[in-house]
Design brief:
The structure holds two protein chains of two kinds.
Chain A lengths: L1 H28 L3 H27 L3 H30 L5 H7 L8
Helix pairs in contact in A: 1-2, 2-3
Chain B lengths: L1 H21 L3 H25 L5 H25 L15
The chains are: A mainly alpha, B mainly alpha.
């Protein structure tokens, strides 16, 4: 039983690290602010989530698991809120998504 | 295994820092710093398990709270150049 928990924990930790790496790569390589938010969202939700679930398998049914669930729930609430506020700020600041002004044939977005 | 997860988190933190340095506008930098804070939460939690002291999770929880408040504050400051209500027409010159 302990071996099974260890195995699940390792799988979750490695998958979380790999997904965080993919999200970081997207944050570094994608062409636009709005596209980069997808990479950041991947790190926020599945990267951190799988790492915390892996830690939960290590902790067992203790208070530590409750704290891990609290952290995960809080990040799950605040991540989309932050991304939404940031996208709204981008649109207010004059940054437009790439596809929109490619279709219109307009100028590239300004860089405030 | 905790060490492997820590190394992965550190590599992603380096990527986020690179984006914060080369990001063409201020919103890229805010996004990168927010991601960096989220990764710091994960790193503190994993470090607590790595050194056998899971009490570090309290620090991790507080860091998550401060990261959210800070990101929202910076976003609002960049958008409105102040932190009060956006449709507040009152004269705040002497505050």
């Amino acid at each position: 039983m302990a071996l099974l928990a260890d195995l699940l924990s390792w799988i979750c930790l490695l998958a979380g690290g790999a997904l965080a790496l993919i999200g970081g790569l997207g944050l570094l390589r994608l062409p636009d602010v709005f596209a980069r938010m997808h990479g950041a969202g991947m790190v926020d939700t599945l990267g951190l989530g799988l790492i915390l679930v892996g830690l939960m398998f290590q902790a067992g049914f203790t208070l530590i698991t409750v704290k891990l669930i609290l952290i995960f729930g809080f990040v799950l609430y605040t991540g989309p809120t932050t991304t939404h506020a940031l996208a709204q700020a981008c649109l207010n600041g004059g940054v437009r998504p790439r596809a929109a002004h490619k279709d219109a044939g307009g100028e590239p977005s300004s860089t405030p | 295994m905790f060490a492997a997860a820590s190394i992965a988190i550190l590599v992603v933190m380096a990527m986020a820092l690179a984006r914060a340095v080369i990001g063409p506008n201020v919103y890229d930098r805010i996004l990168a710093v927010n991601t960096f804070g989220t990764l710091t939460v994960a790193l503190i939690a994993v470090h607590g398990f790595l050194t056998g002291r899971p009490e570090f999770l309290d620090i991790s929880l507080v860091y998550a709270l401060i990261n959210f408040i800070g990101t929202i504050a910076v976003t609002k400051y960049v958008t409105y150049t102040h932190l009060r209500s956006p449709d507040d027409e009152q004269d705040w010159e002497d505050v």
